[in-house]
Structures are given as C-alpha cells and as structure tokens.
Structure prediction request, 449 residues.
Amino acid sequence: MDTFFKFQERGTTLKTEILAGVVTFMTMAYIIFVNPGILSAAFGDAGAEWIPALATATALGAALMCLAMGLIANRPLALASGMGLNAVVAFSIILGAGVPWQVGMAVVFVEGIVILLLVMTGLREAIMNAIPINLKRAIGVGIGLFITFIGLVDGGLVTANPATLVQLGDFSNPAVWVTLIGLVAIFAFMALKVKGDILWGILVAAAAALIFGVTELPKEIVATPDFRTFFAPFQQVDGKMALLHLFTPTLLLFVFAVMLTDFFDTMGTVLSVGEQAGFVDEDGKVPGIRNILAVDSIAAAVGGLFGASSITTYVESAAGVAEGGRTGLTSVVTGLLFALTVFFTPVIAMIGGSTSITAGALIVVGFLMMTNIKEIPWTDFENAFPAFLVIVGIPLTYNISYGIGLGFISFVLIKLLHGKAREIHWLMYITSVLFVIAFVLPSIQAAIG
Prediction:
C-alpha cells in the first residue's frame, strides 16, 4: 500500500490518509440529501417517490468515482454530484425545456463524453483560452445566486407575489422556522470550526422538522438500493432511446452550457485544492492532470448514466487535504463511506424530501460559490458588464443557460462596438450566434405556426 499510494514520497501515513478521507466525507456528505431533493423537483408531483432511486444514484455514483480518482490518479480529490449542475439539469433542462428526465440525464451523459474527448485530445487549453476569464468567474457566481434563490424559496423565506413577483415568506409556517434553525445551526458549526458543518446543520434542521411536524420518521432505516434511474440515457422515451432526443438546437446548447460549467469548475477546483496539497508546480501546472481530468470527465458521464446529474470534483476535498491527505487513499476512504450510505435511502428520503430541511444548506452553498465575484474588474465596462448579465441573468431568468447566453452575446457586441474584434475568439462568435438562435427560435416557430 505504501508503494502504490506513495506515502513516504508525499510525507503522509496510513492513519493520516484514513482520517483525511473521513473528514472529506463529513464535509461533502450533505450532497446525499440535497441532490435527491433538487432532482426530485423535475419529477413533478411524483418527486417524493423517486427520491430513494435518486439517493441510490447519488451515493453509488460518488462512491464509484471517488474510488476511481484514488486508484487511477492517486490524488486526494473526492467527487459527487455537483451543486449548480444539478440545478441546471432539474430546472433549466428538464423543467425549463419541458423534456423527460431521461433526456435531461442524456444531456449530462453526452457532455461528459465530449469533455473526455477534449481532455484526451488536448483541446481543453483551446477552450479555456476562448472564454474570457471574467465570464468564467461570473458563471460560478450566477449559479451561486441561483442556488441561494432556490434555497430561499424551498425554505419558505421567499414566496411568490403577483404584484411584486416575490415577497417575504410567512413566519407562521413551521417550515420557515425549520429553515431558519438549520441555517443558524450551520452558522454555529462554522463558527466552532466543526468538520462537516453543513451536514450537521442539515441534521439539526431534520430534528427541528420532526419536532414541528414538517416531516415524519421513516418506517424503516435500511432498504434495498433502488436502481430505477440507472442507464437513463438508454431508456425508452416516446418510442425511442432518450439519447436520440438530443438532436435539437436547444438541447445541444444545453450540452455545451453544462460542459462549459462542468469543465471550468473542475479546473478551478483541481488548481485550488492542488495548491493546498502542494502538487501544483511553479508554473501552475499539475503533474498527472490528464488522469485527473479523465476521471472527472468519466464521472460526468457516469452521473448522467446513473441518473445522479453530473458528478464532479469537489472543492470540499480541501478539508481532507487540510487534515494531511496527500494521496488517493483519502479519496478511496471517502468513496467507501459513500458506498455505505446506499443502504440508508429511507433516511435520505425523509431529509431530502422536505425542502425546508436542506434549504439552509443551499443558501450557504450558494454564498460559498460567490467568492470569485471579487476577482471581476468592475471598473472595466467591456468585461464587467457581460459578467454582470451572466450573474443576474441566471437567477432572474431561472435558467443557467440563458444567463450564460446573455453574457456571451453582450461580450461580443460590446467588443465589436469598441472596435476590438481581434479580442474575440472565433469560438465566442459561434457560441453567441447559437445562443441568439436559441433565444429567437421559439418566436420564429410561433410566427410560422
């Protein structure tokens, strides 16, 4: 084991790696409850019935890919269904585009395959250079706001109003108090520097939900894993395979939008965690980056295949690195712990099925995703305004792809009007035209019947 994981070479021990793996799991285990809750919204009134299956897909997908990262790349990087990406799949693709859930998962499956091809052919650098850095930052910030808004609505703190669109929620609603208790609990655990602060906050909220009668204890604790969502892209939808429904301009744009978000989130996470772990060199390069990105790309495809949304590398891996994790054994331990949760889907369904229990977690995660906003040069109109449109466009259109499109189109227009066409990569022109088509196509279709 020492030889395989290189304990001595990286200055670590078996005990340290196991502890780091446990800490990483505790820090990111909230996804076991949150992801099924978000994805279940795409199933409409039958959402609660699908949570056990979504929980199985979430836990097993995370387990498998953590093991793959540890054994193939030998880095302390853990993976699970990505926050933000799950909202894209549920609200923008499945509900927004009005497609069956299997087709939404097919979008994720295909984008994972596309990213894998880009990684293996070395084209990732070209794509990274094509998208302006400020737009990359803005996408993460906009998704953070989107997730926070979902959390505020799910928790009852914000409700609809026909006159003002939104308003403050009803504090006589017990669910609102469950949300507030969970949120304050997360604040407290953060202040006390407790590992797994978000997870513990969710558990406190679950206890409050039981006390207030918002939810009930499950009839059983352990259950057989539910595999109904597995192989979603290859399930039959309207007489043909879900995968074959993707050949429309709208869905192909979604493939690109999800790929964009997934691709750059991974690069940022790997670099930030890698710097903390000490495996980023002086030139900002990560030795063995191709193996890391290959596993992450396969993970995205596996997420779509299992029905768990896109699985991606988690920045929470930094928690295990802070505990001394330096090798893939950290990720292996995290993966084994995820695997154990597969058998506790009734408990996960109880927590994930009550939106007020996980609402506080969504609000805090959304905040954490906004930290890059300080890196955007707000005095530079040419670059800041397109970023601004991405940030406000994502939550206000309730569609991540639309927000990205507004930013891309405005970036090209502003640069052209300032006579700086040479600063626009050819890929930005193509993408902007595709977004324009996606925006106006419904109107054209309506006009011609």
